[in-house]
Amino acid sequence: MIEIVETDAGTARITWHKAKKPRLVLAASHGAGGGIEARDLQALARVLPAHGVTVALVEQPWRVAGKKVAPAPRTLDAGWRGIWPALAGMELPVISGGRSAGARVACRTAGELGAHAVLALSFPLHPPGRPERSRAEELLGTGVPTLVVQGGNDPFGRPAEFPEGPYELVEVAYGDHGFAVPKRAEITQERALEIVTGGVVEWAASLG
Fold first, then answer.
1. Are the C-beta atoms of 26 and 205 separated by less than 8 Å?
2. Which residues pair with 118 in a beta bridge?
3. Is the dihedral of CA 49, 104, 6, 66 positive or negative?
4. What DSSP state is assigned to residue 68?
5. Contact at 8 Å (CB) between 101 and 124?
6. d(Cα 180, Cα 153) in Å, to the nearest integer?
7. 14, 130, 147, 189: least buried by Cβ within 10 Å?
8. Which among 156, 198, 162 is positioned nearest to 175, based on CA atoms?
């Protein structure tokens, strides 16, 4: 089911993948360079509903408008705030999530929006090759249970680079920023996505 939502940043779009007996909603948005067709977002939409989690894949207004480049963080945050009433309207706890830039939005807005938890897929800890430009504060400041799922070879931040903090981290060995694994890797692409979905299912089950 597709829902169109008007926000202060423009028209957003939610694609719902509903659980039969939902106990949680996972809202997940895309990064700055792609859409909800990302392999991890699609895998979660396929798997989580069977585990009682309704998945709402959110397309930010800039993406719906067909633009190629994401706007400034404050505009992304405005778009996320605008879709939140539609998510909260399910009257279930909402996990605020996203991949890459979408993960940053979820982290920055979790407190003000009353998110139940945060799922950060491929959190961009720093720009590639610029570890001194850390964005760790966003991740550490969510104030709610937070799960990071990170590729072992993510140029935006490998798991070992992450600071200690009040969050959990699942590593997808060999995975890049999009959780793609090389053909010569010891795990298959299918297995890499199973690690993503399995980690999220287990973590979501632990949320009160």
1. no
2. 96, 146
3. negative
4. S
5. yes
6. 10
7. 130
8. 156
**Cα–Cα dist 198/181, whole Å:** 17
pTM equals 0.97
Tokens matching residue 115 = 């998110």
CA-wise closest residue to 14 among 124, 107, 90 = 90
What is d(CA 27, CA 39) in angstroms, rounded to the nearest whole number?
Answer: 16
Token pair in block for residue 89: 């309207």
User: Taking the mean position of all CA atoms in its chain, how far away is CA 134?
Assistant: 19
> How many residues comprise the chain?
208
pLDDT in tens, 128-167: 999 999 999 999 999 999 999 999 999 999 999 999 999 9
How far CA 161 is from CA of 126, 158, 199, in Å, comes to 10, 5, 20
